[in-house]
Amino acid sequence: MSSIAFPRPPADTEAVLALRTEFRAFLDKELAGHSPRARSDNWYGFDRGFSRAMGQAGYLGMIWPKQYGGHERSAYERYVVVEETLAAGAPVGAHWIADRQSGPSIIKFGTEEQKALLLPGIAAGELAFCIGMSEPDSGSDLAATRTRAVRDGDIYRVTGTKVWTSFAHEADWVILFCRTGSGGPADRQQGTSQLLVDLKNTPGLTIKPIIDLAGQHHFNEMHFEDAIVPANMLLGEEGNGWNQVMSELAFERSGPERFLSSIELLYQVIEALKGIDSDAAQITLGRVTARLAVLRRLSRSVTAMLQSGQDAGLQAAIVKDVGAVFEQAMPDVARELIDAEPDPAAAAAYASVLANITLNAPSWSLRGGTREILRGIIARGLGTR
Questions:
Q1: pLDDT tens digit sequence for 129-183
Q2: From 30, 238, 248, 252, active-site residue
Q3: What are phi and psi of 309, to 5 degrees?
Q4: How many whole angstroms separate alpha carbon 71 and alpha carbon 223?
Q5: In the chain, N or C: fewer CB atoms in 10 Å?
Q6: Looking at 240, 263, 287, which one is the last position of a domain?
Q7: What is the CATH number of the domain that holds 49?
Q8: Burial level of 194, CB count in 10 A (0-12/13-18/19+)?
Q9: Which residues contact 262 (CB under 8 A, 6 or more apart)?
Q10: Is the pLDDT of residue 185 over 60?
């Protein structure tokens, strides 16, 4: 059995520490008045005004070339901004996917026309993206995709359905993973491609809401019925979709969002326990803090790999899997320590935050790849399957 290496994380230089201080001041100003309940939405919060403020201040497209609206800073400097944003419970939904993975994919695989069309708007916080990967009856088995795009002169005609497309009803664009050729049972990854689809101006596209357990509208179904997509919106090479989407998932799975989704609940637990002398509470919080520190180190290590151009897919899968377990455990930890029921309508911060996290947490082992799929990837990396 093989071992899986995680390199040493980047160091906190004086420039990084200064950036952290500067960005915290930005967040204090922009998030003044945000309640703990609102902060517990974390990356489910969608606020175009906040995303535009991030872009105007230079906190989006941080690692991109300046010619595309970027700022040519390091991957770790971007990590610091993402970490602080999530720790503060900022509403990142309007720029989150575009800045994290769609933009980098366009930089890596896109044409100059596509880069000029989309990247400056993402860096300015003006363009929101969603992810068009999962399908009904397929879940995280992306190779089972049935959505098909057929070339017809200067267009593709697209037919199929995507699910769990977060904020498709609000976003401007989606990177659609689809089948453009044949792929047999032995090699289902073959014949797949990615298309850039304008969500506001695509004939034949219908977006329908999926209301989640919390009664909120984040998710959607996207139905393509002979939808027309210009052929010049093919991202990368036709038939190379599988390799491209795997590259994209390394950005999606490894960041601090994989262990900070329930951080507001941890804050509220600590606040509620102030003044209470309990060895059991101190031991539990010590263990939670230790797990959080380990996850943070692993995630920062993946950032070092991405910055140096290494393939971090395997390490990212580990961070995502272990991080989701940590996040989903927080409501149980809270209930063990504090005798209070979750209540979405409660005026008390703890009860309302507990309710919101409890209702949203079941989906966290789905997004970014289900636990079963991720553990299969990890098992292959260890040489056990």
A1: 999 999 998 766 788 899 999 999 999 999 999 998 999 999 999 999 999 987 6
A2: 252
A3: 80, 15
A4: 37
A5: N
A6: 240
A7: 1.10.540.10
A8: buried
A9: 40, 327, 328, 330, 331, 357, 361
A10: no
Q: How far apart are CA 176 and CA 205, in angstroms?
A: 12
29 vs 52: CA distance, rounded Å: 14
Pairing mode of beta strands 173-179, 129-132: parallel
Shared domain check, 176 and 231: yes
Q: Whole domain around residue 135: which residue ranges?
A: 131-240
Cβ atoms of 204 and 227 within 8 Å: the answer is yes
A 10 A CB-CB count for 28 gives: 10
Rg (CA), the chain: 21
Instruction: Say whether pLDDT at 253 is over 80.
Output: no
Domain containing residue 328: CATH number: 1.20.140.10
Helices (H), the chain: 14-30, 36-39, 48-56, 75-87, 96-97, 103-109, 112-123, 241-253, 263-272, 279-307, 313-337, 349-360, 371-382
Q: What is the pLDDT of residues 293-319, one digit of tens each?
A: 999 999 999 888 878 888 777 888 888
Alpha carbon distance 20, 144 (integer Å): 42
Compute, in degrees rounded to 10, the torsion defined by CA atoms 100, 101, 104, 108: 170
**Stated pTM of the model:** 0.91
Using DSSP, state whether 292 is helix, strand or coil: helix
Residue 126 bears catalytic tag: no
For tokens 């967040």, the residue is 27
C-beta separation of 166 from 93 below 8 A: yes
Whole-number Å distance between alpha carbons of 300 and 314: 14
- Is 183 within 8 Å of 191 (Cβ atoms)? yes
Q: Which residues of 267-306 are buried (b: 16+ CB within 10 A; e: fewer)?
A: bbbeebbeeeeeeebeebbeebeebbeebbebbbbbbbbb
Q: Is 230 exposed, middle or buried (0-12, 13-18, 19+ CB in 10 A)?
A: middle
